[in-house]
Amino acid sequence: MPLIAIQSVPCPDTDTSPYGIATALFCGRLVRDRFNFLNQYSNVHWIDSVDPIPSPDAASMTDLMDRRAQELIAQGSVAVQWSGGVDSTSLLLALIRNGIKRDNLQILLDSNSISEYPRLFSWLQEEKYDCKVIKDWKTALSTCDTDIITNGWCADQLFGSMFFHEVPILYDRSLEELFEELFLLGKKIPEEDIQIAIEVFKQMGKELFDVDINIAAELGWLINFCLKWTWVSTFNELFLAGTENQFKTQVFYNTPYFQSWAVNNFLEIHKNNVYGTDASHYKKQLKEYCYSVFPDKDYLINKTKVPSWNSTLSCRDPKQTGLFEKIIFKTDKGYDVYKLPTYVPYQRLTELEKEIFTKYCKQ
């Protein structure tokens, strides 16, 4: 049975194929290559469809943000999942800049959102916007009464990979140097597998987007853009499976024109280590857009990446830390939902997932 997406299944650390290395390094979970280039190296039976391959477009980020905001505003009331980070802040301010009525805007946030951007939160309260502090994201999103829900996911995939947030020193390393630093299950990746993977990744970049993949940051963008995009773009759809709001989310940055902008922006990736000494360049175009609506020089210059987990944490049973409630698979026939017994300890989760997952492996 071909798979389209999976909510959350860790990738095996023993797979040293190009697919296995890519997912272990930049995704942390099994994900489908939406352009169907790396899927041939995966043991998973992924659907063989191919997303439209974007061509580069030099449109300004301001024009794209305004265009997308106007598209959503035209559909009625909007609920925004606001984390306080650059991606969701940009889209929230885009809706405001483009004249969304206050009665048509709900801002869903949690305590992390407030601590990440307290100044904007204070302003939103002063301006009487409808801010709802959420404790249970699953309940909040599944009962939200707006016409659509939107969030800032897919923006990371436009710009690169947050892998380098933890190891900025690797940002501009060559691919050979990158893999020299990596271990799977505490062991170095075999040299032969490294050389095969590098050749495949370079071929992938050239054939899909006519770009040269030479440094770690460029590879991070490629894998994030092609593979992890599948997970983030379908997250709410799977997270809310079985609820009336399952298909209500329209991910703000999940459009062909944002993707074309990303391909055009590829040549900028190597110029600044945005997770290291060049943090002011981190998502600079989005921060400049924010500044045009809500002038905050500190945010413009100093704001960098803060991992925004928010609703992803709610995939776990809140009463039993480390336990997942269910695993959801999206197939070409619909959705398979496996509810996990609450007594399964986290350390046995991988074993249980593999048992379920045999159904979706290549024969």
Keywords:
10% strand, alpha/beta
Would you write up a description of this structure?
α2 crosses α3 (86-97) and α3 runs parallel beside α14 (284-293). It is built from 16 helices and nine strands. The strands form three sheets. The chain has a four-stranded parallel β-sheet with strand order 4-3-2-5. The chain has a three-stranded antiparallel β-sheet with strand order 1-8-9, with no helix packed on it. It has a two-stranded antiparallel sheet with strand order 6-7. The protein has helices spanning 18-26, 61-73, 86-97, 111-116, 118-126, 137-143, 155-159, 163-166, 175-180, 191-209, 216-233, 235-239, 256-265, 284-293, 297-302, 349-357, and strands spanning 3-6, 78-81, 105-109, 130-133, 148-150, 183-184, 187-188, 326-331, 334-339. The radius of gyration is 20 Å and the shape is globular. With 363 residues, the protein is of the alpha/beta class.
